[in-house]
Design brief:
The complex is a heterodimer of chains A (228) and B (216). Chain A contains nine helices and no strands. With 228 residues, chain A is mainly α. Classes of the chains: A mainly alpha (228), B mainly alpha (216). At the A-B interface, helix 2, helix 3, helix 4, helix 5 and helix 6 of A face helix 1, helix 2, helix 3, helix 5 and helix 6 of B.
Chain lengths: 228, 216
């Protein structure tokens, strides 16, 4: 068949029949997945790693991530999770690996003679909208205060841990708090209060209240873990 | 610690280089946020995908073709083995997918392509010029036999024909991949006419110009 692959929404990639054909090695399905995933994953990489990568970097990361997905697609187990989650995990891992590379010497395995002159391909203008991503919350709209004693205690606990231990401890605490609290904190990392409010169908003020409570729960969990 | 610092702490535990991978549950939370997709340069990305996949399969250029198969058959098998579609290959070399199909089916004979288009395919698939010469010879002989069958349908398959050290009793695989083609041997002479020789010469010049020295 010729022509552009059929377009589908990113969310539709999890449709079981599609996944089955993809995992069986469907080339057409891979093309469809590639186009839907490229656009969405780039958005996630830009948001999650906003301090580290620009639009061009994000695109390179997603391109590498989708290559990794292509190489291992037959190992994806449809019953064990969603394809879209698997793809995002690969993209995040790829982005993390990119952060490890020295910025002055990013190795491009594709530095070789071109199959087609790149100026035959239209340049993609990266619109400034890509950079208009929500920033982390500030304390300007305070809902309440965390107890100084508690937060100092947490600082003290974490200060004497190695980085790996600290990451593991924080991650465990995140996993042990309630699901709604955890979700609010994760969503805060990537989205604005407006987007979170839209997703949860609540007001932005309620988002701030929920986040405050979630962080309190998180602090308490960190403290309790220390005493266990 | 204020709210921002606590969020940064959590973010570090998820996204720093040393952090363990996201769980499916965490990934699904991120994915649940309503957002618009980013624009991407899909052509550029597809091109790079094809290059990456094919470099991964052939770190060193393919210097010798072990089976007597036509150029089109080789390309099709290599593309299928890499699990790449016509569209992706076509994008990588600046053509459309019908072009790739016609090359694979040998509706477009290799030496009838522009040397530039052929160079694009050769570079992409990491074919050394020696291997290209072999494949073009096999395509030439297959095409010659096809034309002869057209002209002389009463003649049997070319099993009785022997050409300067070259024997193909079973015929060539072109479209029929279930045929098991003969194996090439080091002593095979490569049959081709002046047109093919000239084409190879032009191809070599283009590869030199594009600095594909590892293919020469």
């Amino acid at each position: 068949m010729n022509g552009e692959p059929k377009k589908i929404a990113f969310e539709d990639l999890d449709e079981p029949d599609f996944v089955a054909r993809l995992v069986a090695g469907g080339q057409r399905e891979f093309d469809i997945m590639y186009e839907a995933a490229a656009r969405r994953l780039k958005r996630h990489v830009l948001r999650l790693f906003r301090e580290s990568f620009n639009a061009k970097d994000a695109e390179d990361i997603v391109e590498e991530a989708l290559f990794n997905a292509q190489q291992s697609i037959t190992t994806f187990k449809p019953g064990k999770g969603k394809l879209t989650a698997w793809l995002l995990r690969i993209a995040v891992n790829t982005a993390k690996n990119h952060k490890k590379r020295p910025s002055h010497k990013k190795q491009d395995p594709l530095v070789r003679s071109e199959t087609v002159a790149l100026d035959d391909l239209p340049d993609q203008d990266y619109p400034t909208a890509d950079h208009q991503i929500p920033t982390a919350p500030t304390s300007t709209n305070k809902v309440g205060r965390f107890s100084d004693k508690k937060t100092e205690l947490i600082k003290g606990i974490l200060a004497h841990l190695s980085k790996e231990e600290r990451l593991a401890r924080v991650r465990r605490a995140l996993g042990n708090i309630g699901e709604i609290s955890r979700d609010i904190l994760l969503l805060t990392i990537e989205g604005s209060d407006k987007e979170i409010a839209e997703k949860l169908d609540i007001t932005e003020a309620n988002v701030r209240v929920l986040r405050f409570r979630a962080l309190k729960e998180f602090i308490d969990e960190l403290q309790q873990a220390e005493t266990r | 610690m204020n709210e921002k610092e606590l969020i940064e702490l959590i973010k570090e535990s998820l996204l720093s280089e040393e952090a363990p991978p996201l769980t499916d549950a965490e990934a699904e939370v991120f994915l649940s946020l309503p957002m618009q997709d980013s624009p991407v340069n899909l052509k550029r990305m597809r091109k790079r995908l094809a290059e990456r996949v094919l470099i991964a399969r052939h770190q060193e250029p393919v210097r010798r073709i072990e089976q007597k198969i036509t150029f089109g058959t080789w390309i099709r098998r290599a593309r299928n083995a890499a699990r790449l579609s016509h569209d992706v290959i076509a994008t990588a070399i600046g053509k459309d997918s019908l072009f790739i199909e016609s090359v694979e089916n040998e509706e477009a004979l290799p030496w009838m392509l522009t040397p530039s288009a052929m160079a694009g395919m050769v570079i992409l698939f990491r074919l050394h010029i020696d291997a290209v010469r072999q494949l073009l010879s096999y395509s030439y002989v297959a095409d010659k036999e096809r034309r002869q069958r057209f002209s002389y349908p009463h003649l049997s398959a070319p099993s009785s024909e022997v050409r300067a050290g070259l024997m193909f009793p079973g015929g060539y695989s072109s479209r029929e991949d279930d045929e098991e083609p003969n194996k090439s041997t080091k002593s095979d002479h490569l049959e081709m006419d002046e047109e093919v020789v000239r084409f190879l010469s032009k191809l070599r010049k283009i590869l030199e110009r594009r600095q594909a020295t590892d293919l020469l």
